[in-house]
C-alpha cells in the first residue's frame, strides 16, 4: 500500500507541474502590434534599409532631421503606389530611406479550410472572390490589413470584409480602420482605410499615415498619405 501511495503522489505532482507549465504567463498576445519608442540600426536593416546606408541614415534620424522619404510623401495626398499591374512598389531615396507598398493575392492561403469556389464560371464571363493583403513599409515601421473582395460578372465590385489590421514600429495608436465605402459606384471607388499616428523618435515630429485600398472598374490599387501633425 505504501508503494502504491508513493506512485500516486508522484503522478499527482507530475500533473500539477504540467498544468503550471501550460498556463500562459502575463497578457502577451502574439497578434498584438509591436510598438517602439526608438528606431535602432537593427530595425532599420529589418525594415529594408541598405547596409551601406544604415549608419548615416540613423545619424540623420538621431539629429532630428527629416528623411528624404518623409519629405517625398509629404508633398501630395493619396500617392498611388502599388497597383494591380505593379503590385510590388518600392522607391529608395539618396539618404537610404524608402517607401514600399505591396498588394498580395492571398486567396488560396486564406481559403485553405474553406470549401467555396474562388471563381464561378458563367456564360459571358467570370465572377470572382479574392482575398488581398495590403501593406506599406517605411523607415518608421509598417502597416497592413486584408480585404475580401468580390468582382461580379456584371455590376459593381464590392469589399466584403476588411480585417487583420497590423502595425509595427513607432506607432502611438490607430486613428481609424475600416471599410469607408463597400461598393463602388459609377463615380466613386470602393475604399478600405487604415490610419495610424506615428511619432519619429528624437525629431518631435508626428505624422498621421493613411493607407487606402481602392477598387473600381475591375481594377484595384493602394494609396498612401503622410500628413505632419501640428502640435
Descriptors:
46% strand; five-stranded antiparallel beta sheet; 231 residues; single chain; 12 strands; 22% helix; elongated; alpha+beta
Order of helices and strands: HEHHHEEEHEEEEEEEE
What can be said about the biggest beta sheet?
7 strands, mixed
- Terminal residue distance: 77 Å
**What is Rg?**
24 Å
Number of strands: 12
- The helix tally amounts to 5
Q: What structural category do the secondary elements indicate?
A: alpha+beta
The proportion of residues forming helix, as a percent range, comes to 10-25%
Shape: elongated
Low-confidence stretches: 14-32, 119-125
Structure notes:
This protein is an alpha+beta fold. The chain has 5 helices and 12 strands. It has helices at residues 2-22, 41-47, 51-62, 68-73, 107-110; strands spanning 34-35, 79-83, 88-92, 98-105, 119-122, 125-138, 141-151, 158-169, 171-181, 190-200, 205-216, 219-229. Strands 1, 3, 4, 5, 6, 7 and 8 form a 7-stranded mixed sheet that branches. Strand 7 (141-151) and strand 8 form a beta hairpin. The longest helix is centred in the N-terminal third of the chain and has 21 residues, at 2-22. The model is unreliable at 14-32 and 119-125 (pLDDT under 50).
Concise structural overview:
The protein is of the alpha+beta class and 231 residues long.
What order do the helices and strands come in, and which of them pair?
Blueprint lengths: L1 H21 L11 E2 L5 H7 L3 H12 L5 H6 L5 E5 L4 E5 L5 E8 L1 H4 L8 E4 L2 E14 L2 E11 L6 E12 L1 E11 L8 E11 L4 E12 L2 E11 L2
Parallel strand pairs: 1-8
Antiparallel strand pairs: 2-12, 3-4, 4-6, 5-6, 6-7, 7-8, 9-10, 10-11, 11-12
